[in-house]
Design a protein that fits this description.
single chain, alpha/beta, Rossmann fold, UDP N-Acetylglucosamine Acyltransferase, domain 1
C-alpha cells in the first residue's frame, strides 16, 4: 500500500491529496502545527510538522503542500537531508511531453500542459490549467498559477510566481523572487525582484 504524509493542512493540501489518490496513494494523513485543525476532508491531521520519524518508519512518503516558497523549501530540504521518501505528483489529466524533466516534490495539477524540452525544478507548483511551453527552465520553488501561461524559451528564477491568468511571451527571462500579478503580460525581461502588474507588466511602486 502506498502511503503519504502531506505537510500543510490547507486548501492547497486538499487538492494535493486528490492528486495523490490518483497517483495510487491509499493511505493519506496530514501534519500541521495548528492544533485546532483536526482534518482535511476525510484525511486526519495526526500531529505537528516535526512528527515525521514514526511515519517514515511506517513506510510513508512525504509531500510539502505549503504555498510560501521559502517555507516549502525549508521543509523539503530537511526531509531530503533526513532521507525521507519524497513524492512527486502528476495529475493524470495533464499533457506532458515525454522529454520533460520534473524535480522532486513538485505537483502538476489537472489540465496543465508542459511541452517539449522543458525542465521543472524541485518543489514547484504547476497549477490547474496552466501551460508551460517548449524549452522553458522553471527554477526551484516556482508557482505557475491557475490559468497562467509561459510561451517558448522562458526562464524563471527560484521562488518566483506567475499568478492567476498571467502570461509570459517567448524568449523572456524572469529573475528569482519576482511575482507576476494576476492577468499581467510580461513582454520584456524581469531582472529585479518585486511585483509586476499590468499590460505590459511593470514593477509596482
Amino acid at each position: 500500500m502506498k502511503k503519504l504524509v502531506i505537510i500543510g493542512a490547507s486548501g492547497h493540501g486538499k487538492v494535493v491529496a486528490d492528486v495523490a489518490v490518483l497517483n495510487g496513494y491509499e493511505a493519506i494523513v496530514f501534519l500541521d502545527d495548528n492544533a485546532d485543525i483536526k482534518g482535511v476532508d476525510q484525511y486526519p491531521v495526526v500531529g505537528p510538522t516535526n512528527a515525521t520519524e514514526e511515519l517514515a518508519l511506517a513506510g510513508y512518503d512525504f509531500f510539502v503542500a505549503i504555498g510560501n516558497p521559502v517555507i516549502r523549501k525549508r521543509f523539503l530540504k530537511q526531509l531530503i537531508k533526513e532521507g525521507k521518501g519524497i513524492a512527486t505528483l502528476v495529475h493524470p489529466l495533464t499533457a506532458i511531453a515525454r522529454d520533460v524533466k520534473i524535480g522532486i516534490g513538485t505537483v502538476i495539477m489537472p489540465g496543465a500542459v508542459i511541452n517539449s524540452d522543458t525542465v521543472i525544478g524541485e518543489g514547484c507548483i504547476i497549477n490547474t490549467s496552466a501551460s508551460v511551453d517548449h524549452d522553458n527552465r522553471i527554477g526551484d520553488y516556482v508557482h505557475i498559477s491557475v490559468g497562467a501561461h509561459t510561451a517558448g524559451t522562458v526562464t524563471i528564477g527560484e521562488y518566483s510566481a506567475v499568478c492567476v491568468g498571467a502570461s509570459v511571451v517567448n524568449n523572456i527571462s524572469i529573475c528569482a523572487d519576482a511575482t507576476v500579478g494576476a492577468g499581467a503580460v510580461v513582454v520584456k525581461d524581469i531582472d529585479k525582484p518585486g511585483t509586476y502588474i499590468g499590460v505590459p507588466a511593470q514593477l509596482m511602486k
